[in-house]
Design goal:
The complex is a heterodimer of chains A (about 500) and B (about 400). By secondary structure, chain A is of the alpha/beta class. Chain A is built from 17 helices and 24 strands. Chain B is an all-alpha fold and about 400 residues long. Classes of the chains: A alpha/beta (about 500), B mainly alpha (about 400).
Chain lengths: ~500, ~400
């Protein structure tokens, strides 16, 4: 079979980090090609290079599509050739109809006047092709996520797709919908449409993929031909995570004390869809001086769990018991959670952690204004002293405490958010992806802070998608998947393979 | 984006100074612009603008705009808008007038009732904005229509007045001076000079210099980030000269208007609230990033609600001031005031997206509008051309803001 797509020696750098290092990918005409890799391995970046999100010139290397070198400067360029990408977050307009969405920006029109008869007729054909039984004028918002996925695919078909790229298409689908989607891909294969599918679910890949390419740390590890050898989970997992550990973590001598905080049979429903459980009964505890990690893939429900514990900042109908120091505590509002001694450092520091228009000082004291005020009147000197103290303690590199946080680097912004919560004097700190997008040096500093907190007798819960990080800084690790804790292990016994295996076990892949 | 390591303390100090200039350039620019425009109108009106009588007028005409702009500052900084304030002015004025004129209720309880009424209206609107999550633009647009309509229904085209002397004194009165007690009376045929007014002005200037010097010294001693010394001296000198100068001019007319005392007290109070209290800090945080504030334990719903209650009370007060000034309630009282108030905020550097804005900026913004109104009226420029000019100035002021910000 001839190759429809070849990506040769693709490299792509972002400020401070090399996301892709000489990646090679060869996709044959009419096959289903799977791409596997950890979060942050570079899968999505590679697809963005391919589809022109990152234009020619912003990366190195060559893209050859249908025998010719292509230089896309916009997404439209790649779409014209029939390369269509369907992102994990669907790009549909919720309050428009199926037909309007399918032909958005591509309307069958004469002199700017849309021919709705034609649009509806073609929509019906496309919906039949993808097996979706809905009328073309049904609104997207009334469709389930699985059906929305099918609309996206119909939209791709409307653009005469040659190469269909699906980024984690089944991540949010239930089993029936997933199966239907995979069957559809196989049908497309029969019609000569090539697909690239990015997925964590190895069992699904085993069903449909012709080839699997594994990417790790921005480089291709290998491409496995599924028709030549039988794929084994262990083999792929090792391929995905097998990197060497070096001492990127400060030494840690745990001094673990009495149980501090505990949640029992914690259940949370989706904030918009009543009845859809996102957290399905979780038990968790952390002791004084302990650093507990929560591992899992994206969408496992880790952030949702943390935010629901932190004053029900996420979800509805939160059920379960929270216990602090052996006594039940009320964490039903953020104020109560903070008063109970819980702090939550958000995953998204720019939109949830900081007030970017304000300076370091105001951000540091925001969560504990009474701590620098007397009867509601702020003591400027005490406030500045506090801000200066944390700026020094956490080595926040800035021109001073009056510098606006918007002008700080990611690592320093994260330190400001950490300062804010340290000043709130919590007992339990929940850190959600504390080192995302931070350079190695700042990471080390943040790990040291975590160590110091534990040494001071606090309980620290770390959520991270970087498994080496969890292994490097935690004492104990919970493994979460699809709203449940599927495993728990002491960090010293844990390996990336073991964690990945407990996640995959859920999907029923035989090792 | 990139932050270099700051090692030497000297470098840090100069960097702090540089950022101080950058952060405060707008404030000083605004103040300088106000002085320039005052100078301009003083010249083209042949000295009428700064005539003692006109200065008194200028203050009386702008007092209610300043009062409401203080409330609007908090509303806009909190990330909302209130379009209903002009109608609340009319409505509260109408209710108060009816109580005093038809029901013969004495004015002191009416004043209290009017402030409560304003607060209740603000609370009602604030409830829909904060707890029902209806956009404030819509809620207060509805409020604007409702209360304008109710005012019209109640007054049916009538002017309700006049009021008791004591009530009129809110706007038309002046603080008693020595001459009222037979001291320092002017000789017959000579203009009375109100010595106490000047003394208050001088005392105010001294107090300002004393307080800010003390703060500056203390900050400096503790090596806190302070404004550069020349800037500090210059700013305080300008303010002191302005205060003494204006009190001197006022002293040649009728002395210190009561409403100026109310206004000055409110300006001080709101400066304190916005810069020194936890509530004020939380409003700014909420407007700057609502989610981050919420996740830091700020009760954003309650706070939004309170900004509207506060706005309502101040609009009620403005309603009293306006009624007292006109000595009657009229169906059109307060019409389109909301636009002047909002314009004053934006000229004064309040960010439309919330989180940014200062009391002094808003006050200067209000007087900027006031001086333009007054100056153009003296020159006999038609009201429609005045609107055109004000519109252009508003756009220009915000354009400068946006331009500065985009340059970083």
């Amino acid at each position: 079979m001839t190759a429809i797509l070849e990506m040769r020696d693709i490299s792509k750098s972002f400020p401070g980090v090399k996301a892709l290092k000489n990646v090679n990918l060869s996709v044959s005409e009419g096959e289903i090609h799977a791409i596997c890799g950890e979060n942050g391995a570079g899968k999505s970046t590679l697809m963005k290079v391919l589809s022109g999100v990152y234009p020619y010139g912003s990366y190195e290397g060559q893209i050859v599509f249908q025998g010719q070198e292509r230089r896309f400067s916009r997404i439209v360029d790649s779409e014209h050739l029939g390369i269509i990408i369907i992102h994990q977050e669907l790009a549909l307009v919720p309050l428009l109809s199926i037909a309007e969405n399918i032909f958005l920006g591509n309307e069958p029109a004469r002199m700017g006047v849309i021919d709705w008869g034609e649009a509806f007729r073609r929509t019906r054909e496309l919906l039949a092709k993808v097996g979706l039984k809905e009328t073309p004028n049904a609104l997207i918002t009334n469709l389930g996520i699985g059906k929305q996925q099918l609309v996206e695919i119909a939209k791709a078909l409307a653009k005469k797709v040659k190469l269909l790229i699906l980024d984690e298409p089944t991540a949010s689908l239930n089993e029936t919908d997933s199966d239907a989607l995979l069957k559809l891909l196989v049908e497309f294969k029969g019609q000569g449409i090539t697909s690239i599918i990015i997925s964590h679910k190895l069992n699904e890949l085993a069903k449909v993929a012709d080839k699997i390419t594994v990417i790790r740390d921005g480089a291709t590890v290998e491409t496995i031909d599924c028709h030549v050898e039988k794929i084994s989970e262990g083999r792929i997992i090792k391929s995905m995570v097998g990197r060497e550990m070096s001492d990127r973590y400060p030494p840690r001598t745990p001094n673990i004390g009495a149980p501090l905080f505990e949640i029992r049979s914690w259940k949370v429903e989706h904030p918009q869809h009543a009845g859809r459980e996102v957290i399905k009964g979780v038990d968790m505890n952390v002791r004084r001086g302990e650093v507990v990690g929560i591992a899992g893939l994206m969408g496992a429900g880790r952030t949702e769990l943390a935010m629901s514990v932190f004053g029900r900042a996420y979800g509805r109908n939160v059920q379960g018991q929270a216990i602090m120091d052996g006594r039940p505590v009320d964490v039903s509002t953020i104020q109560k959670a903070v008063a109970a001694g819980i702090a939550y450092v958000t995953e998204d520091r720019k939109s949830l952690g900081l007030v970017l228009s304000e300076d370091i000082k105001n951000n540091v004291t925001l969560a504990n204004l009474p701590g620098i005020a007397w009867r509601g009147v702020i003591d400027n000197h005490r406030e500045q002293k506090v801000a200066r103290q944390y700026r020094e303690l956490l080595k926040i590199r800035s021109s001073g405490i009056f510098q606006k946080t918007v002008n700080l680097s990611g690592g320093n912004q994260q330190k400001v958010v950490l300062s804010k919560w340290l000043f709130a004097q919590p007992q339990v700190l929940i850190l959600d992806e504390p080192t995302r997008g931070i350079d190695v040096g700042a990471k080390y500093e943040i790990y040291s802070i975590v160590n110091d907190l534990a040494a001071a007798g606090k309980g620290v819960i770390v959520i991270s998608s970087e498994m080496p990080e969890l292994l490097g800084i935690c004492d104990r690790i919970y493994v979460m998947n699809e709203g449940r804790f599927v495993d728990e292990m002491p960090a010293k016994d844990a390996t990336q393979e073991k964690i990945m295996a407990s996640i995959m076990k859920q999907y029923g892949v035989a090792a | 984006m990139s932050q270099t390591n700051v090692a030497a303390p000297g470098a840090e100090a100069s960097a702090a100074h540089a950022s101080f200039w950058k952060n405060n350039l707008r404030d000083y620019g605004l103040l300088v612009s106000l002085l320039l425009i005052m100078g301009f109108f003083e010249i083209v009106t042949n000295g009428v603008l700064l005539d003692p009588v006109n200065i008194t007028n200028l203050i009386l005409q702008n007092s209610y705009i300043v009062v409401m702009a203080l409330g609007m500052l908090l509303v806009i900084v909190g990330g909302n808008i209130d379009l209903s304030v002009g109608s609340i002015v009319g409505f509260v004025g109408a209710i108060s007038a009816s109580l005093m004129v038809y029901e013969k209720v004495p004015y002191p309880p009416v004043i209290v009732l009017a402030l409560i009424l304003g607060g209740v209206i603000g609370a009602a609107q604030g409830y829909f904005v904060a707890y029902s999550k209806i956009p404030s633009f819509i809620v207060t647009l509805a409020g604007m229509l409702i209360f304008r309509g109710l005012t019209g229904n109640m007054l049916l085209g009538q002017f309700v007045g006049p009021f008791a002397k004591g009530f009129q004194a809110i706007s038309a009165g002046f603080i008693p001076d020595f001459s009222d007690f037979g001291i320092l009376k002017a000789a017959d045929g000579q203009d009375q000079f109100f010595t106490l007014t000047l003394l208050i002005g001088v005392a105010g200037a001294i107090l300002l210099i004393y307080a800010s010097t003390r703060r500056w010294m203390r900050d400096h001693a503790q090596s806190m980030e302070t404004e550069p010394f020349p800037l500090f001296v210059g700013k305080n000198a300008i303010f002191a000269i302005l205060i003494v100068g204006f009190s001197y001019l006022l002293a040649w007319n009728k002395g210190l208007p009561n409403v100026l005392v109310i206004m000055a007290a409110l300006i001080l109070l709101y400066t304190f609230v916005t810069t020194r209290t936890t509530v004020g800090r939380r409003v700014y945080a909420m407007g700057g990033n609502r989610l981050a504030a919420q996740l830091s334990g700020v009760r954003v719903e309650r706070l939004t609600f309170l900004t509207f209650v506060n706005m309502g009370v101040l609009a009620g007060l403005a309603g009293l001031i306006v009624a007292a000034r006109l000595n009657s309630a009229t169906p059109s009282a307060g019409q389109s005031f909301e636009l002047d108030v909002i314009a004053a905020c934006f000229i004064g550097g309040v960010s439309a997206s919330g989180g940014v804005g200062k009391v002094m900026g808003v006050v200067i913004g209000a007087f900027f509008m006031g001086v333009m109104n007054n100056g153009m009226s003296i020159l006999g420029i038609g009201i429609f051309w005045q609107q055109v000019v004000k519109g252009v100035v508003l756009l220009a002021a915000v354009y400068v803001d946006v331009y500065q910000k985009s340059k970083g």
